[in-house]
Amino acid sequence: MTKTSRKTVLITGTSEGGIGDALAREFHRQGLFVIATARNLAKIQHLKDLGLEVLALDVVDHASIQDAVKSVETLTGGKLDILINNSGSDSEVDIAKKMFDVNVFALIEVTKAFAPLLIASKGKVVNIGSIAGIIPLPWAGYYDASKAAVNHLTRALRIELAPFGVDAINITAGVIKTKFFDNLNTPRLPANSLYAPAKDLIEPVMAGEGLKDAGIEPEVFATAVVKNALKSNSTKDLWVGGNTFIVWFASTFGWATIWDVIVPKLFKIAEVTKKIQAAGKSN
């Protein structure tokens, strides 16, 4: 049986080039015993080469989760100090059900599975939410809703886990320069979409146009998240990433429908409307 006296952290979704990858490397630099996971071990071989422990974990597969729990128990002697629920932040997700399976239901099952180890350590759960759960991004409603669920679930978990000495931290991630959009199939509107007349405006938005350059480097994001996680009194809701200040400010001090004013201007909804109306008149 392998045991370690170091603090332990397990991170889901650590494929190369993403948020989880950066978090794994930063925790490793800070001296923790890091268990990096992904569905495909080939995608995290680089972390193994750096000396990190790696495990295969498919967060939407119950058996895979249970196998990972047993492996972690063996590796750590039955404890886990920090669980980072990150899967989904850099994944290709095509449909609403799959998106909620990865971003929401998997988070619940993974947290539940590792709860006994976290309780043994009086540890922390860190969930990677998103400003997409705050601001209604057009043509990304399913993703927005799944991240809103993450934000709210984490706050509920914090209350529910408090009697056991386990903390829950929500990371409201802004724009990060990862391979998120590169990993997506080129977004296309359905041929029969009502928005087809304005696809030249909409499809670039679906592909992340205008967002990539607004992001921070994954290493900068990871440094802030890890520093907060390792504090004795962590910030419970941490905003990190590009565009977070404006979203925080508007959502904190704005009125209930402020996004109805801001979002249409950001995403050229007036131009979209004109193209759709023009197409309707010509038919």
Automatic annotation (TrEMBL):
Keywords: Oxidoreductase
Pfam families on file: adh_short (PF00106)
Family to which the UniProt record says this protein belongs: Belongs to the short-chain dehydrogenases/reductases (SDR) family.
Organism of derivation: Lachnellula hyalina
One example GO MF annotation: triacylglycerol lipase activity
GO CC terms in record: endoplasmic reticulum; lipid droplet
Protein name, per record: NADPH-dependent 1-acyldihydroxyacetone phosphate reductase
Biological process according to GO: phosphatidic acid biosynthetic process; triglyceride catabolic process
